[in-house]
Design a protein that fits this description.
Helix content is 26%, strand content 26%. By secondary structure, it is of the alpha/beta class.
């Protein structure tokens, strides 16, 4: 059984807008709402990992909110928090994506989730992006701290990686300039 883990714990420190980057307006919503809408439409059980920004009031009861108190120790702690929650609920694989990537589609989440590879990674025009599927057999291989999680694992175990061609775009909204390119 596969679950989706949407990472939304970071501080967004490079974003110099008037709000947290996830709450920045984008089209008819926010950066976060677009990412949440896509993952929610995937049909997967959704685990939202929060940290610096309080987003729990922005999701419905169908989304399990997992607060990562150690978010400042790097993205690896958020991935672990999501995996631990999903694993405790009986999931044996997770598809991990980022809440600051509002152009990843529900189809990308579904297509990556459908893979039977230990590690499946969405690709966009041949370039690796998110989301990334991680089977329980590789969870213990993930780094415990730091911000490089999936990439580090894929470099160390390329034999386990399967690319999944996807439509959409895995562009991050990290800065105000990134946001302005899309508005």
């Amino acid at each position: 059984m596969v679950a989706a883990v949407l990472l939304a714990a970071g501080s967004g420190s490079r974003f110099e807008g008037e709000t947290h980057k996830l709450l920045a307006p984008l089209g008819d919503g926010t950066v976060f709402s677009h990412a949440l809408t896509a993952v929610s439409a995937s049909g997967l059980d959704v685990y939202l990992v929060t940290g610096a920004a309080d987003l729990a009031d922005l999701v419905g009861p169908e989304v399990r909110v997992v607060h990562n108190a150690a978010w400042a120790d790097g993205q690896a702690t958020s991935v672990r928090a999501g995996i631990d929650a999903a694993g405790a609920d009986g999931h044996d694989a997770v598809v991990v994506g980022l809440a600051d990537q509002p152009f990843v589609t529900a189809e990308a989440w579904r297509e990556v989730a459908a893979s039977d590879a230990a590690i499946a990674v969405a690709t966009y025009d041949g370039k690796r992006g998110n989301p990334v599927r991680l089977h329980a057999s590789v969870w213990d291989l993930l780094p415990a701290t730091g911000d490089e999680v999936g990439r580090a694992l894929m470099r160390s175990r390329p034999d386990l990686v399967r690319p999944i061609p996807c439509a959409g775009d895995a562009t991050d909204i990290d800065t105000l300039e990134d946001l302005h390119r899309w508005t």
